[in-house]
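<instruction>
Derive C-alpha cells from the sequence
<data>
Labelled lines for chain and fold:
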Amino acid sequence: MLELVLRGVGWLAWQAGMTGRRVLAELIGTILYIAEPSRRRLTIANLRRAYPELRHRQLSDLARESYRNLATVFLELLATPYVAPSQIHRMFRFRNPHLVQHKLTEGKGVILVSAHLANWEWSALAATIEFGKPLLVVVKEQRNPRFNAWLDRVRRSTGNETVPMFRAARRMLQWLKTGGIVALLGDQAAEPTSDVFVPLFGQLAATYKAPVVLARRSGAALVFAYCRRATDGSYDVFFETLPEANDEQIPVEEVVAQYNRLLETAVRTAPEQWVWQHHRWKYQPPQSR
C-alpha cells in the first residue's frame, strides 16, 4: 500500500513540473512549519545560534524557507522514478569537477563528505553520471522497512551503490581500494563519546571524524562537496579539497574543524537550504554542561 501511495504521489509530483513542485513545496513547507511546534522551536533556536544578530521575525522567515526546501527535496525525490537520469544530470552544473577527477587519476579513491544542503539526494544521482562511475553512498536506514526499500531503489537509480552507515567501514575500504568514490553526509550530530567536538557557527558540536580516519587508512583524498539551488530550480555543485586529511602530523581534530569551517561557509551562502530542523547541538562536552 505504501509503495502505491509513493508511486502515485511521485507521479503527481513529476506531472506538476518544476513550477508546480515549487507551489506545492511552499504549501507543504508552511503546513509542516505550523503543524510541528516543537520542531519549529528547535529550528528557530538553531538559527539563532548561527545568526544571533537577527530578529525573531527574520529567524522565523528563514525557518519557513528551510521547511520549503525540505518539501522541495521530498517532492523531487518522489518524482525521481519518472525522471530520466540524464534529465537530472542536466539540472546540475559541476563547477570544479577537475578537483575530483584529478584525484581519481591517482587511483586511491575519493571520499566526498557532504551536507544536507539544497538537494543532496539528487546531487549524488547526478555525480555518478558526471564522473562516469558509481558512488558508494553511505546511508542511514529508515525505520519503516517498506519506505527504506523504496528509498534505496531511488538512490540506486543512476547506478550508485548504498551501504548502511553502521556497517560501512569494510565496504568503504574495499571500494576505495579500487579507486572508487565514497559519498557520505557529515553535518549531523555525531557520537559524543567517540567523535570530536569542534566549532560550528561559533559553538562546539559533536562532529564525525570517520571521513578523516578513513582517508588516512585508505590513502584516499578527502573532498568537501556541496550543492546549492539556483533561483530557476537548477543546482550548482562545488568541491573543496582537504589535503591535510592525509597528513598524519596534523591532528584529526584540526581537519574535522576545517571541514566544519567549509560547511559553515557553504551554509551561509544559502542558509535557507540547510536542514536546520536537526538537533545539531544536542551534545556538548562534559565540561560545558
User: Anything to note?
Assistant: The chain has a mean pLDDT of 96.
